Known about the structure:
Elements: E1 60-71, E2 74-85, E3 89-93, H1 100-106, E4 117-125, E5 128-129, H2 137-143, E6 144-147, H3 158-168, H4 174-187, H5 191-194, H6 207-219, E7 225-229, H7 237-250, E8 255-259, H8 263-269, E9 272-277, E10 280-286, H9 287-292, H10 297-303
Helix pairs in contact: 3-4, 3-6, 4-6, 6-7
Amino acid sequence: MAIQFHRPPFHVILPPQATLTNFCFPTDSNTVSSNTPAEGSVPPSVSGVDRDLDMTGRQTSIEAQNLDFYYGDNQVLFDVTLSVPERSVTALIGPSGCGKSTFLRTLNRMNDLIEGTRMRGTILVDGQDINDPAVDVVLLRKHVGMVFQKSTPFPKSIFDNVAYGPRIAGEKNRTYLKDLVESCLKQAALWEEVKDRLNDSAMALSGGQQQRLCIARTLATKPKVILMDEPASALDPASTSRIEDLIGELCAEYTIVIVTHNMQQASRVSHQTAFFFEGKLIEVGRTTNIFTNPDEKQTEDYITGRFG
C-alpha cells in the first residue's frame, strides 16, 4: 500500500545539518585509482547482497523521470531517468561534481533547503509524485531517511539521540521508546557496544559508532527508504567494514541508495550501480555487469581508473 505523504498525523523536526570482461586493468599506478576493484575479479559482495538476484519482479520504490536540476542558472542534472527496486541497494558512482549527491538529495527534497534551486521532471516514491504541492515534506523525509557523510550526533545521550524523532512526533510512552531504542541499536549493530551506557553522551562515541548511531536514529522514524551520502568516507577500514555489513543486513527490509567514490565499496554492497558523469546518467545496470562488461566506453574508463 502506498504511503500518503499529504496527510501527516504529526511533524518531525529534521537534524541540522582495460578489458573489463576479464578485469585486466592498466598496470600504470598513475592511471589506476586505489579504489578500483582488484585485478582479476569483482570483490565479493557483503552478506545479504546477492548481486545476481533478479530484480525484475520487484516493485519500484523510487522512479526519477526526465529529471533536470538547477542551482540558480547552473544546470547540474540533465534528463536523468532511473528506477530503484524496493528492498535493494543502488550505488551512485562518478567523479566529484558529477551530480550524484545532488540527485540523491532530490529523492527526499533536501535540496529545497538551498535557496535558488529548481527542478523539472518527476520523482515518484511508492508511486506518488513527491513534488506535488499537496505533499507534506516533513512526512516525506520521515519516509525517506538520510544518513550524511559526516556523522551528526546530537549533544545528548545515546538513548535520547535514537528516541529524538519519535519524541518530537509526540511519542511519550517510556516502555515503547525503550524497546524502540534497543531495536534500532540492534539493527544498527551498535547495541552490544553501548547497552550499558545508554545515558552517556553520544559525543563520546568513536566516529564509526557515531555513524551507526545516526543510522539507528534514522531507523527510529520507521522509514521505507534510506539515502546514504558517502556514509563511510571519513571512517577507518574496520568501521567501514561494519557499515558495509550493516547495509547488507538492512536491505532485506529497506530500499537503500548510496553515493560512494569507492569502487570496491560500490561493487561489494550494491545490486544495481548507476554511473553519473557531468550531470548525466551514463549507464545503469546490475552491479556485476557494470563492473565487468559495461555497455558504455565512458563507464569502462571510469571503472578502470582512466579518469575521475
